[in-house]
Amino acid sequence: MSRFKLLMTAAAVAFAAPAFAGDIMITDPYARVSTMMSKSGAAFMVIENHGADDDRLIGAASDIADRVELHTHISDANGVMQMVEVKEGFPVAAHGTHELKRGADHVMFLGLRQSLNDGDTVHVVLTFEKAGEVAVDIPVDLKRDAAAMGGMQMMNGAPEGKMPEHKNMPSN
Q1: Cα–Cα nearest to 20, from 59, 47, 38, 1
Q2: How are beta strands 81-85 and 165-166 bridged, if at all?
Q3: Average of per-residue pLDDT values in the chain
Q4: Which domains can be identified in the chain, with CATH numbers?
Q5: CA 25 – CA 39 distance, rounded (Å)
Q6: d(CA 23, CA 15)
Q7: Which of 23, 29, 83, 169 has its CA 20 to 30 A from that of 72?
Q8: pLDDT digits (tens, 9 = 90+) for 127-142
Q9: How many CB atoms lie within 10 A of CB 145?
Q10: pTM > 0.90: yes or no
Q11: What is the helix (H) or strand (E) element at residue 39, kind and residue range?
Q12: 91: which strand partners?
């Protein structure tokens, strides 16, 4: 990648415009896949609620995947980390934030219909109980530091960069 293209990609990621709907603001969104051959990917962001009432992220949609779900990581009785769908969604307290981040709550893309390349943009529509729909153009950033996952690199005892078990993944 040329130095110019690299700088332009970095600028696009660094200056992704916040998305708004009602009292909800989405900041610092980014998406990624673990490998270029991945059939799944994820999106992360900060959800800010500037209103006086609690709200809840209850869904997400995008045409880049067969299914788009809200997920989190949980540890089972043996300490094995698993990704699971959170059907009830994620609460966002009044005047509060809820961070979707690696190793925790996130938007999951299952059955990717296209590869996600660094610098691409993914269009996602988030649905909130009160604020309604928020359209977000999310930059793909494959260079985000793996340390952003905190201690998740050692989940399942798998080598760094491997995905944890996933309860809802379709079998191939």
Answers
A1: 47
A2: parallel
A3: 80
A4: 3-166 (2.60.40.1890)
A5: 29
A6: 21
A7: 23
A8: 999 999 999 999 999 9
A9: 7
A10: no
A11: none
A12: 56
